[in-house]
Amino acid sequence: MQRLKYVLSEVMVGLWRNVTMTIAMIITMAVSLAMLGASGLMYMQVDSMKDFYYKNIEVAIFLDAEVTDAQRSELKTQLEGDPLVREVIYESKQQAYEKFKTMYADAPDLVNAVKEGQLPESFRVRLNNPEQFKQIFDKYENTEGIETIVDQRRLLDKIFNILGSVQNMALAAATVMAIAALLLVGNTIQVAAYSKRREVAVMKLVGASNWFIQAPFVLEAVVAGLIGSIIAFAGLAAFKGFLLDGSLRDLTDLLTRLSWGDVLLMFPLMAGVGGLVSAITAWVTLRFYLRV
Prior knowledge:
Blueprint: H1 2-17, H2 19-55, E1 59-63, H3 69-80, E2 85-91, H4 93-103, H5 108-113, E3 122-127, H6 133-140, E4 146-151, H7 152-195, H8 197-205, H9 210-247, H10 249-254, H11 260-289
Antiparallel strand pairs: 1-3, 1-4, 2-3
């Protein structure tokens, strides 16, 4: 018990003795962990969006302006009997125009520029497997009455490729900040060890074990890492509460909602990474610096 009290008291003294560097270490750790948590949430969000949108994706088969009733009826029968197709929805010119007016209600000039009857009628086809668009395209591209076939998946792939690039950039930035945090942790521990070099030498002379000498320094780094993870989590929670659920609510509804469960899931990850990485960095630094 006395040894534990000594170690804990030394941790508090060490954190306060180098308070400026401790604060810098905590802030750097908090920023890097926040970016790590944000990139983790982004990965989860993009995966959730893919599952949601790919499940409801449609192949739009636009009909020719001169399509006959017989051609339209025959095509509908073919699509409904196709084993690749899960659902077929017919959209008339009137329905297409009404949807267009609803989608672009905030752009009246654009709506006024399009007259009723100018938008083509179409079949909205949902596939059992969205990956099989090529088979559908090859099968129906030369069918009479069809003007063009559009795969929404291709459009979504471009969007997800952009989001994937953002993911990688966030992860790269988090990695750079993590390296900076590790260097700062190592430097802080080295300074702390140097300031207590005489005390450490005396402890070695009286036979103190390696773990007893190292423990206060390692725990200093762990405490700083855990405090940084708490600050990082508070930042993520604030971002979720005030932005995603506030001013950016319409955007998150358009994409997919980010749940509080996903945010809470990031805290043990950030705390574990912050504490473990700080401990390992401090231990390695001490092994090289103190030779214990």
